[in-house]
Amino acid sequence: MDEAIRGGSEPIVVEVTAGETYWWCRCGRSKEQPFCDGSHEVTSLEPLEWVAPKTRKVMFCTCKQTKTPPLCDGTHNTL
């Protein structure tokens, strides 16, 4: 099965809640971007567990190339 990471072209802004766990999709296959929906099961990739340090809006990466996963670092602008 194709394990190539498929990514979006822009981050998704989400209001997160302090102390809550979010499972960021690493494979790019999830239809619930930026979060995991289990689509990685056919790959060797696993979602990334991320706990929100505080309640606020954050930009989750969808290009899957960020150097600060799961948050966007602007890498999508260079792809």
TrEMBL record:
Domain of life: Bacteria
Gene Ontology MF term list: 2 iron, 2 sulfur cluster binding; metal ion binding
Annotated Pfam families: zf-CDGSH (PF09360)
GO cellular component terms attached to this protein's record: cytoplasm
Residue intervals of the Iron-binding zinc finger CDGSH type domain: 9-46, 47-79
Gene3D superfamilies: CDGSH iron-sulfur domain, mitoNEET-type (3.40.5.90)
Alphabetic keyword roster: 2Fe-2S, Iron, Iron-sulfur, Metal-binding
Name by which UniProt lists this protein: CDGSH iron-sulfur domain-containing protein
Species in which this protein is naturally found: Phenylobacterium montanum
